[in-house]
Amino acid sequence: MNINLHLTDTTQLHAEGYVIDGRLFAEVRWGLPNPARLGDGALWGTPAAMRRLAALAIQAAIQAEEEAAWQARSATAAAKRGRVA
Question: Quick one: which H or E segment has residue 77?
Fold first, then answer.
């Protein structure tokens, strides 16, 4: 499976829970709501799978913020070394 999803700070996300044939499903949709079709323009899966996906998304966001902070500190330190020399 390959998923490419690019979210911005203004992307509207919508969450729903469903019971289909006695099984639980969680769904996250983006953009305009389309309640007519489960899975149309959405990520969906069991609640446990969606919780794992959410945990990984949080981990990735934290790592991205840490990387950006490290890059900023490295650039500042390099600039200071360049001025001293």
Answer: helix 47-84
Contact 27, 46 (CB under 8 A): no
Under 8 Å between Cβ of 49 and 62: no
The Cα–Cα gap between 84 and 32 comes to 54
Amino acid present at 66: E
Predicted confidence (pLDDT) per residue in 13-64, tens digit = 889 999 999 999 999 988 755 555 555 578 899 999 999 999 999 999 999 9
Complete edge-to-edge strand list for the sheet that includes strand 42-45: 13-20, 23-30, 42-45
Look-up of token digits 């799978």: 49
pTM of the full structure:
0.70
Alpha carbons 28 and 35: distance in angstroms, whole number: 11
